[in-house]
Amino acid sequence: MFYLQMVRSYKRKSTRGVFGDNTLQLVLSALKEGMSLKKAAATYSIPRSTLRRHRDSKVRCPGTVRFGAFEPVLNADFERQLASQIQLMERALFGLTTVDVRHLAFELATQMKLPHKFNKDSKMAGADWLKGFMSRQPHLSLRVPQPTSLSRAVGFNRPKVEAFYEVYKSALEKQKFGPNSIWNMDESGIITNVQKPVKIIATKGQRQIGKMTSGERGTTVTVMCAMSAAGSYIPPMLIFPRKRLAEGLMRGAPTGAIGAVSDSGWTDSTLFVKWLKHFATVTKCSTADPQLVIMDGHNSHKSLCAIDFARENGITLITLPPHCTHKLQPLDRSFFKSLKSNYNRAADNWMTSNPGKRITLYDMAGIFCKAYDRAASVEKAKNGFETTGLWPYDDQKFTDDDFCAADVTDEPLPTSSAATAGIGQMNVKQNCNAFTIYFYP
Description:
Blueprint: H1 20-32, H2 37-44, H3 48-55, H4 76-91, H5 98-111, H6 127-135, H7 158-175, E1 182-191, E2 220-228, E3 233-241, E4 258-262, H8 269-283, E5 291-295, H9 304-312, E6 315-319, H10 325-328, H11 330-353, H12 361-375, H13 378-388, E7 417-421, E8 424-428
Parallel strand pairs: 1-5, 3-4, 5-6
Antiparallel strand pairs: 1-2, 2-3, 7-8
């Protein structure tokens, strides 16, 4: 069956072809069984000339109502797969916005090597195409999510945390993950300017005391860090706000660290895939030696390439509930604060040792290395996983006092279910809007 791409504001001005494909195919079947052309036209109110053309195969697609010279956009198999992926992400509580769907359509069409006219600059399908796609998928609609029993919840609350622990426990039991195979990954920003200068001795009574810094406003570099429940660390990835990774930017960086660039200095889906490849190289993970990565639900973690790479290399991805990373993410609990404090001190020492100079992007890797080496201790990694109850596993780690700020209802959450299709198998808690988990066989 072929589909047409129409202008979003177009309104039909005639009743031509209102009988539709199903009726037309039914009439053609009746003609094959011996019904006369005249009787069929009168019975089904279809012009005799139309029936004759379709019966004699003098149209491009017999049995299909088509007008004008429109070319097919994409085939029905593509749209079925896209709809399946959308529903799969919905069941995984990774609901896609209209922009996400348009990006996913571009990625899927490219992956399936289908010819298309989607915008190659923005790498997304058009709004007109999306409207036509939705009209052909009556089982899909644009909805405002209403999480069961969490509609009034803001931030950290017991239903979200209990749902997360339930799925996390099932992942541990399914793959028999140990502390060496459980990782937490997150991004953070470091800046050329010292954000919190160390205290100095000064004249008593002075209202304002100054100290030399690198500049009024700093430049941010993103660092992607990961640590395991056993106390190991993946060498970090540094993302610089540049067009090209120039020589010297990684001078003095931590051993094994890799560099990357982006226009803004922040991560994106392509750089996340690059980090996944770096992770796979360091851990030597495979389907025979799987690894589990816990991370937040940033948009850059949603791409089809990342999901495919993780599946092929035995990486299970779990995202934390939204607004809960400050409690549930080991890196936030035990590592990043120490890293930022050590970086500020290292940057301050650099300014003292280099009077009259500013910290540039070419100095940051060396300064960051000193801070990272001080912060990346076995004890901090183990403490981070222990305080969050991720390892050793403890779903009772948080008490009522931890949830006192959340206003939630007493309605029970629905039971979890398994959804299998397309990307892989996912065991999720429906309607809690908390997390997603991928099991890759």
